[in-house]
Write a structure and sequence with these properties.
The protein has about 425 residues and is mainly beta. It is about 10% helix and about 30% strand.
Length: about 425
């Protein structure tokens, strides 16, 4: 597994006023990636030992200045993480090409690693770890330059946009769900078993100045204050766990995914039955809402994310035509509606900071398609703005043609106002 940086693709993104990209790697030591005949220049940032991963699709491994890339090197890829096994936190210098180990973590899995993520500056790198024997997770803040570190209780999944707080779920209970990859490898005997409406588990927020970690809202209180009596009766049996946390770009809202197990099958058995739902609240736990009901998610869906407006949530969900579509709803629980027409949903969709474009890594419909490689996935860029005129798209097409994006497959590249 290697981490790649597409260089010329910045031409199409920057031309659209979309994502802010880091400068191109300057070191000549980064070799070019040539398998599957890529149509744009691609550099391999981790050409050495391999087994490299980053946090999650909505987290950038690139430091705020654009100088460094922070990653995790797994000890192995062919089996699940075992309790006590260490992974290496890796730092890559985009200027010199140097790759070095700066720390170890024993709180990692194969979906999000150890949640390696940057704060607001290059002196703040965060990742999760766990005390072997005690099996208590904690969050580490490391200065990669000086080696100075500070530990915070409980671990985290996301850092607030202003860098003052961290939020997360209970890393010790994640493996009680039907899939691995999002927590820490902890022995089963050290993993708590929740009831249907736990009062001591839920959404946690850590103050990164004082070091205090607080349960801002329990799963039980989310249920009590946002659900109807009929819904609460439906959820009164089973075991409920926190799963993912998202922080809105403006720092004003949190999304909290709760998963409820309906039987006692072991994780990974393929026989467990679950309800998945999304709650929202302010960072202090106030103003709770049920943002997405489990009956809607049960029809099919995955990979939620905040829209740049900080009130809208984007997600792959089953649409009105019965197919998986790119849908949107708000933090208050509005009914999901298509994001930009009935565009087929897939992959890991994200909207650009200015709200004009959506990029994802799966197969959509004909709004925009670029065939990237013979055996690879398509990469798609869709205009979400209604006010872009044909002249703008014509100019964008000229940029694509001039930069050679898509190469001989340029005819497969289609731009649309959706």
């Amino acid at each position: 597994m290697a981490i790649f940086q597409a260089l010329s693709f910045a031409a199409i993104l920057v031309g659209c006023g979309a994502c802010e990209l880091t400068r191109a790697p300057q070191a000549e030591s980064f070799p070019s990636y040539r398998r599957f005949a890529p149509s744009v220049p691609v550099k391999i940032l981790t050409p050495g030992e391999g087994r490299i991963m980053q946090h999650f699709f909505d987290k950038s491994p690139i430091s705020p200045s654009g100088r460094w890339v922070a990653l995790l090197r797994l000890p192995y890829e062919d089996r699940r993480a075992a309790p006590g096994d260490a992974a290496d936190v890796i730092l890559v210098d985009l200027k010199t090409g140097e790759e070095r180990k700066i720390a170890e973590s024993r709180a990692w899995e194969h979906q999000v690693g150890a949640c390696v993520m940057w704060g607001t500056c290059d002196d703040e790198l965060y990742f999760n770890d766990v005390r072997v024997g005690e099996w208590e997770p904690f969050l580490v803040r490391l200065n990669p330059t000086t080696g100075e570190r500070r530990e915070f209780p409980g671990g985290a999944f996301v850092i607030s946009p202003d860098g003052t707080k961290a939020a997360g779920y209970n890393l010790k209970t994640v493996r009680r769900m039907n899939f691995y990859g999002y927590g820490a490898a902890i022995p089963p005997e050290a993993m708590p078993i929740n009831g249907a409406m736990p009062e001591d588990d839920g959404l946690f927020v850590t103050d990164l100045t004082t070091g205090r970690r607080r349960l801002v809202r329990s799963i039980a209180s989310f249920f009590r204050e946002t659900l109807t009596e009929a819904d609460r009766r439906e959820l009164s049996h089973g075991a409920s766990y926190g799963f993912q946390v998202k922080w809105s770009p403006d720092g004003e809202w949190l999304l909290f995914v709760v998963v409820q197990a309906l039987n006692d099958e072991q994780p990974g058995s393929g026989k467990s039955k679950w309800r998945r739902m999304i709650f929202s609240c302010r960072p202090d736990g106030s103003e709770p809402h049920l943002a997405l009901h489990w009956n809607i998610w049960a029809k099919g869906g995955h990979h939620l994310n905040f829209h740049p407006d900080s009130r809208t949530v984007t997600m792959n969900l089953t649409g009105p035509d019965g197919n998986l579509c790119l849908m949107k709803f708000d933090v208050y629980g509005s009914a999901p509606t298509p994001l930009c027409g009935l565009v087929r949903g897939s992959g890991h969709p994200s909207v650009s900071p200015d709200g004009r474009w959506l990029v994802t890594d799966g197969t959509l419909d004909d709004h925009l398609s670029m065939v990237a490689a013979e055996a690879g996935k398509d990469i798609h860029l869709i205009s979400l703005a209604r006010d872009l005129d044909e002249k703008y798209l014509e100019q964008l097409g000229e940029i694509v043609e001039k930069e050679g994006v898509g190469g001989s497959k340029n005819g497969s590249l289609r731009l649309s106002l959706s």
